[in-house]
Design goal:
Elements lengths: L9 E4 L3 E6 L2 E2 L4 E2 L4 E7 L4 E6 L4 E6 L3 E3 L11 E3 L6 E3 L5 E4 L5 E3 L4 H7 L6 H10 L6 E3 L6 E3 L6 E6 L4 E7 H9 L4 H13 L5
Antiparallel strand pairs: 1-5, 1-8, 2-3, 2-4, 2-7, 5-6, 6-7, 9-10, 11-12, 13-14, 15-16
Length: 208
């Protein structure tokens, strides 16, 4: 790192414990979180530093002796460890599933660690609903329209139709084009995420 460790630095919380800061009120009992959580220093003026941990969405007072410097640019593809995009814990690369292999044979791993992926995919579609979705799946060669983007296409020719389901209750919902299904997945299938996206677009809407 070009700057010494301190305020605004990304650091590694080695111990996995600290005192939570709830809206300016310091807890009495220590809280625990995954060791090797990655956070950013907010205040380094005392022996206990105030650190924000994105994976916990919480501020903690942590003894500076339990913090270690980390170069976030020395993680991820091409390195031995990676920061999970959900829990923000630094983990060995083999704790991330291989997502795909490119034309040169290089492996690309998922951004979420195996533990967080289990939470995302913890429920599969029940067999009864899976059979129903297979029976109702649009037939190859037929004209089909995605219910979200409204684009029409020929199934299996110029549009890929996928069965959409809610990961949490494991419920099949219908069919979407591959792009819209991926888009919903990026928003974690949550209405709040979609509302935030709409609010953002409206905020930056160009008016004549």
């Amino acid at each position: 790192m070009t700057n010494p460790i301190g305020k605004s630095s990304w650091i590694l919380c080695v111990s996995g414990s600290g005192i939570a800061n709830n809206h300016g009120v310091r807890d009495i009992i220590p809280s625990h979180f995954p060791a090797n959580s990655v956070g950013i220093v907010l205040d380094d003026s005392d022996t206990e530093w105030l650190v924000f941990l994105p994976g916990q969405n919480q501020q903690f007072y942590i003894n500076s002796e339990h913090l270690a410097e980390i170069d976030i640019y020395q993680t991820g593809k091409g390195f031995e460890s990676k920061i999970c995009n959900i829990c923000f814990v630094l983990k060995p690369m083999d704790e991330f599933q291989v997502n795909q292999t490119d034309a040169k044979g290089r492996k690309t791993r998922r951004p979420s660690c195996n533990i967080c992926r289990q939470d995302i995919d913890r429920r599969a579609i029940p067999s009864r609903e899976r059979k129903l979705s297979q029976r109702l799946r649009p037939k190859k060669g037929t004209l089909w329209q995605c219910p979200i983007c409204r684009k029409m296409g020929i199934v299996g020719v110029n549009v890929k139709v996928v069965a959409d389901h809610d990961h949490y209750p494991g419920r099949w919902r219908g069919f979407l084009c591959d792009s819209c299904n991926t888009g919903l997945g990026r928003f974690k299938i949550g209405e709040n995420f979609l509302r935030n996206a709409i609010a953002y677009l409206k905020e930056h809407e160009i008016t004549n």
